Sequence to fold (495 residues):
Amino acid sequence: MTEKNNNINLEDRLNFLEKENERLQMIIRQKDDNQHTFREQQALFDALIQNIPFGFWAFDDKNYCFIQNKVSKILLGDITHQSIDVLRKYDNKLIDSCLSKIVDVLEGKEVQFEIQINESNGGKKYIQNVLSPIKIQNEIKGILVFNTDISERKSFERALQDSEKKFRKIYNNSTDAIVIHDYDGKIFDYNEEFRSITGWTHKDLLVKSNFYEMCNPEHRKNIKKSINEIKDDEQVFNIETEIFDVVGLVIPIEIKSKIIQYGESSLVLTIIQNISFRKRFEQKLLNTVVETEEKERNRLAVDLHDEIGPLLSSMKMYLSLVKDSKDQQKIEYITTHVSDLVKQAITSIREISNSLSPHLLSNFGLVAAFNNTISIAKDLIQVKFVNNCNNVRFLNNIEIVYYRIFKELLNNTLKHSNANRIELSLQFNKNVLSLHFKDNGKGFNVLEQMEDRKTGLGLFNILSRVKAINGDYHIDSEIGKGVEFELNTKTEPLK
Fold:
């Protein structure tokens, strides 16, 4: 019985040992698996740390650097396992700047700052730094340090700032006023020219003023309605109106409005051109046209009165003598005189007609008319005339305007300039007829001449003719430098 019991106990022990062995084997396998997993995670963590695209390093509560990635090593050199005391001796501005913030971090604060460092090649690098405490169970066990190279971002920011400065410079130096407002007229931004035109202070413009309320009341409703109907940034609203400055002075303006994206909002960009000078100029042109027409009528009336009138009166007197005379010799004498008077009248009428509409111009064109006028003036001034239009004719109104302008320029030179030479060119290329006139006279101040109602009449007469054919002109003159005038008009030759 005893031997049997011993066998049973031995078997139980063997079973127990087998099970315990299995359990231990399973624990070992789990440990191996855990170690393998840990190694994988450690490798993953190390790879993650090493491949972070910015510098990363940390030191423990013993003040030793226990981890550092490869980007950090490029920035700082290898500082792994170095103590703070050793690091303080490094001649490295970035390390020094980070270590100087340790006290704040040890108080539980996260510290962020930027620093500029000089590179050995003379360049500059900008680093953004973040220092954060490592907390374990609310105790600070070390400090994490992140260093990010933000040189590219800084370069972009500088470029953006430079662009903004350039834009602002152009914006504020524009000769046109610019105002940005919403659909209700509330002003968000404006340039200096807008403030200059309106006379309002910065505070009034941004706080009190409404753009629509500055406009002519008669146009205000239409302007607001039209601007609110603009659907996209391709549409532009354009109108001539008036704006009132701070003292109520009316200023004629032309406005162009379109929708722009301003930050997160869609606002209205309105460009305002002060057209006071243009309006005065147009009025002067109109007055010049009227005065010129009246002057031509008066000249025609004087010519008819002084030239034709006496001839007709003489003929009437001679014919009244013939009526009652029986003397054949007397009749023949009177008839001869009347015939001479008729010839003189015909000649005078032809001259008057030619001054109104030159027959050479209408029959033979600009070059013939120019040459005839030059030949008349050849004893008074030397004229060098070049052209490529000998056999080319143009629309009647084009030829008349070019001829009248040339005559006006020639007359002004003869009367006022004391010049002794004129260079004249008439060229037709690529459907553009170009007249170039230059003298070597005493010249004049163009702006002053245009402001002078008496002496500026001839100049405005020229400009009114230019406007009549939609030409482009350029006048250049200074005291002592003569006059240069150029006229270009798109036209086609007659076939």
Notes: The longest helix spans residues 2-51. DSSP finds 17 helices and 15 strands in the chain.
